[in-house]
């Protein structure tokens, strides 16, 4: 099995020397993925350029990203016209356009995928967010998306809702690589890892090759600070002000501690003997929203081996321009992380309440973006003289 160091070194060798910080991230075992995709980015050669020059070794998408890309119409006119002539439904049109983009991006990243033994070179596509609370529909949609994209380096994104947990097990058990998204709480993250291990056990029982199954767990970062810092600011005390910008990093660091414990445990050790891969933590929502903080905060302070940091392009550019990578900034900080979250609780801010709210808002935001995308595509199909409903 390819080690973290071997995989990241191989991925780095595929690129010309990128900006120093991005190269140093790879040297520390952090895979840099781009949190964005559009047809124009693929066709213009921009994605290939980011692989060559900025050490990008993967891509993540979500409903908001596709809403922005397809909603603009740029690059999709010809396919929309063809879909309109066929008289397809708006749901089918959206599925055809999104899977086409993911397929093309997967082809661009195929060399990275091959060189890293499947560890990187990945492109993620999310199940319809309207299915977030329906286990059976999520499993069926995941299988359909994997079949439509038809590339070994696709990852199917499944939200970490209660209904999503058994879906993760079923989809992994069928041999499909999964990106688990919208993880905010440590308790839910442990449930996600358990669901992944159960899926590997199911796949092993079915006689599948575990070495071909990969997974990442997308642990959201900046949204935690946005919500907790808002509450800290309302308190207005000096202690509250001093805690701003610390909760999200504490939460993520404790998530990494949980990852270390689970994947060093007996349950995974038995699976590793069958060539199973650990489920890597992926830091998502890494764009800094508070201008008072460094725009590279969630890159520099979450450096740890065996992780993925998926960045919007602005964060990627900032990291390349002035990022400071000082080595591992996670594994030595568990005691401080626990103390920071305890201090937030002592001020009357409920961690459980915040993470539950963020999960609900995350699902709702993706569903709203999907509805906006459906509306934009419906309008485009209608403008071509065909009813898109």
Descriptive report:
This protein is of the alpha/beta class and 389 residues long. The protein has a single domain (4-378), classed as Aldolase class I (TIM Barrel). 58% of the residues lie in helices and 11% in strands. The protein has helices at residues 4-13, 20-27, 39-43, 46-53, 63-72, 77-86, 90-108, 110-115, 135-149, 164-173, 186-205, 222-235, 238-242, 247-263, 266-272, 297-300, 313-322, 334-346, 351-383, and strands at residues 30-34, 56-59, 122-126, 154-159, 178-183, 215-220, 279-284, 307-311. An 8-stranded parallel barrel has the order 1-2-3-4-5-6-7-8, surrounded by 10 helices. Helix 10 links the parallel strand 4 and strand 5 (178-183). The termini are far apart. The relative contact order is 0.15.
Strand content: 5-15%
Helix content range: 55-70%
Strand-pairing-aware structural class: alpha/beta
Number of domains: 1
Shape: globular
Q: State the CATH architecture.
A: Alpha-Beta Barrel
Can you tell me the CATH superfamily? Aldolase class I
**Continuous helix count:** 19
Low-pLDDT ranges: 1-18
Pfam families: TAL_FSA (PF00923)
Protein name: Transaldolase
Active site: 157
Enzyme class: transferase
């Amino acid at each position: 099995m390819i080690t973290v160091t071997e995989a990241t070194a191989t991925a780095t060798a595929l690129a010309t020397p990128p900006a120093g910080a991005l190269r140093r991230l790879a040297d520390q075992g952090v895979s840099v993925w781009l949190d964005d995709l559009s047809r124009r980015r693929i066709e213009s050669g921009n994605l290939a350029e980011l692989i060559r020059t900025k050490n990008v070794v993967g891509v993540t998408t979500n409903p908001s990203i596709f809403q922005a890309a397809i909603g603009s119409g740029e690059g999709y006119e010809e396919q929309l016209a063809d879909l309109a002539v066929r008289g397809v439904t708006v749901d089918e049109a959206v599925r055809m356009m999104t899977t086409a983009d993911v397929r093309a991006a997967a082809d661009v990243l195929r060399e990275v995928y091959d060189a890293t033994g499947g560890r990187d070179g990945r492109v993620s596509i999310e199940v319809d967010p309207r299915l977030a609370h329906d286990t059976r529909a999520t499993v069926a949609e995941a299988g359909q998306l994997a079949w439509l994209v038809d590339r070994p380096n696709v990852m199917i994104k499944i939200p970490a809702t209660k209904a999503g947990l058994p879906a993760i097990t079923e989809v992994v058990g069928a041999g499909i690589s999964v990106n688990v998204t919208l993880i905010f709480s440590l308790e839910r993250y442990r449930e996600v890892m358990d669901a992944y291990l159960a899926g590997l056990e199911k796949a092993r029982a079915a006689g599948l090759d575990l070495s071909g199954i990969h997974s990442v767990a997308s642990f959201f970062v900046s949204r935690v600070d946005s919500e907790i810092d808002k509450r800290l600011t309302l308190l207005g005390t000096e202690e509250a002000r001093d805690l701003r910008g610390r909760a999200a990093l504490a939460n993520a660091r404790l998530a990494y501690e949980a990852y270390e414990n689970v994947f060093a445990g007996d349950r995974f050790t038995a699976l590793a003997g069958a060539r199973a891969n650990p489920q890597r933590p992926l830091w998502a929502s890494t764009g800094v929203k508070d201008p008072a903080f460094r725009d590279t905060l969630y890159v520099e302070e979450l450096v740890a081996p065996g992780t993925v940091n998926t960045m919007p392009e602005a964060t990627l550019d900032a990291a390349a321009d002035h990022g400071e990578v000082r080595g591992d900034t996670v594994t030595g900080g568990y005691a401080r992380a626990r103390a920071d979250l305890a201090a937030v609780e002592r001020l009357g801010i409920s961690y459980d309440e915040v993470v539950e709210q963020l999960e609900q808002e995350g699902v709702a935001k993706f569903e709203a973006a999907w509805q906006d995308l459906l509306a934009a595509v419906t309008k485009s199909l209608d403008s071509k003289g065909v009813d898109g409903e």
